[in-house]
Amino acid sequence: AVVQLARDPEWSGAAEFGAPSLLIPPPLADVVRLADLGGPVHVSGPHEFVLGRADLARPGDSVTCDLSWSHLLVAGPARSGRSTALAVAIAGLHDKHHVWAVGPASSALDRSMVDVEAFGRADRIAPVLERLCDEIEKGHPESHLLVIDDLDVFDDMALTALWDRVGRLDELTSAASIETRALTGFSNNPLV
User: Fold this and answer.
1) Which among 138, 175, 167 is positioned nearest to 49, based on CA atoms?
2) Which DSSP helix (H) or strand (E) runs through 178?
3) Three-class SS of residue 46?
4) What is the spatial distance between Cα 45 and Cα 176, in angstroms, rounded to a whole number?
């Protein structure tokens, strides 16, 4: 069988040979900016950000995530875009929050809009988490966002009390990623 691949939907040369013509879509852009997609972008609160655009139910409408009364957990398998989803949250909230980020040394998280960061083992991130807790407990008026990439990697007994302290901070907004398989078993981390 002969199949002709064509970039032009009007091309009919394949019909001459009795072969079907398959339309090849143009390559995707390396970067797609939300503003380039058109349509309104609306967020109503300081803890709300645009996650993307609806494509089926309400084409063109903004899909937003509001963290006013909750936190964000991005779960998925390895290389599924969890760090990218956290980067979208950071991009949408960094103007209204002091952004703190922690993760393993191998984290792919974009750190360009992060104010305070620590990436590495538990002994490297613990001082940053302690500093964050101290600032919030002292009553600093600004909003804080803690982003934890690969939370499941920090299932470490040395951090258990610190994670518990972080979890008790009502003034803290947090967004974390976790590998799906880590949700199926026991964890020492009270945030999980």
Assistant:
1) 175
2) strand 172-179
3) coil
4) 20
